[in-house]
Amino acid sequence: MSKKELAQMLNKALELEHAARIQYLTHAELIKGINAEPIIARLKEIAEDEKRHEEIFRELISSYLGDVPSMSMAETHPAKTINEILDVNIKDEMHAVDVYTGILEKVREMKEELKYEYFQLEHKLRHIILDEQEHIAELCLLRSK
Ligand SMILES: [Fe+2]
Ligand SMILES: [Fe+2]
Predict the structure, then answer these.
(1) Would you say the pTM of this structure is higher than 0.90?
(2) CATH number of this structure's domain 3-142, picked from the four choices 1.10.10.10, 1.20.1260.10, 3.90.79.20, 1.10.3720.10
């Protein structure tokens, strides 16, 4: 795999982050009722994390791989009730973990070629995966059975 192909994979990740942030902020506006407040707060907090992830991906794509960050966004998924919103976002977070884990594996395979970028890519990608796993745990805690 080339650096160019790796940058393309990271651009797909960036597009997932764009979609995730918009989706969380939109879903936060749809939550109503007596239990709404803490859930809205959590969704907005997660949206802030996704914004940080966007910034990290842009930097990796641009400063470390010499490519152009995408301005597109992946598909978003509608939901209405609180439980639907939580379920849809848990599923999307799991998808992000799967995609990012695949990219991390590619980065590790490219260690030799990425002599001067490897630890930045490996460290930052791994930290984003940790955040997404935390998001899954946080959303699952809010999910009423
Ligand atoms: Fe993220
Ligand atoms: Fe997330």
Answers:
(1) yes
(2) 1.20.1260.10
